[in-house]
Amino acid sequence: MDFDYKQFYLSAQGRVSRKQWWLRLVLPVFVIGVVLTLVDVALGTYSAESGGGVLSGLFALAVFIPSILVDIKRWHDRDKSGWWMLILLVPIIGAIWFLIELGFLAGTPGPNRFGAPPTD
How does pLDDT run across 27-77, given as a tens digit for each residue? Predict the structure, then answer.
């Protein structure tokens, strides 16, 4: 299977399945973020006041836009516009809604207005 990283991480076109979202975005970003935070602590570049370090902060900046683009494609798989990302602006409820919609609910079966279903 030939995976197109550029299409997956740098485009808002198409759809992304739950499996792809968890295994190609959420899990790697979480694991790398934890490891870089531990490295920051070991190097003394971690700041308890800000809650982050130099390396983990740079990583967060690097994955910010690709994460948004993949999340938009996950909304597309649910047959919803990428504008649903704005639900995150609603305190607490928005984050819960976001996690349930993108992380736990299946995408629409078959093609929808955003394209064919993703192949895992």
Answer: 999 999 999 999 999 999 999 999 899 999 999 999 999 999 999 999 999
pTM: 0.93
DSSP 115: B
- Cα–Cα distance, 111 to 15 (Å, whole number): 10
Other beta carbons within 10 Å of 52: 19
d(CA 34, CA 28): 10
Token pair in block for residue 114: 């955003």
Going from the C-alpha of 38 to that of each of 13, 23, 48, the distances in angstroms are 35, 22, 13
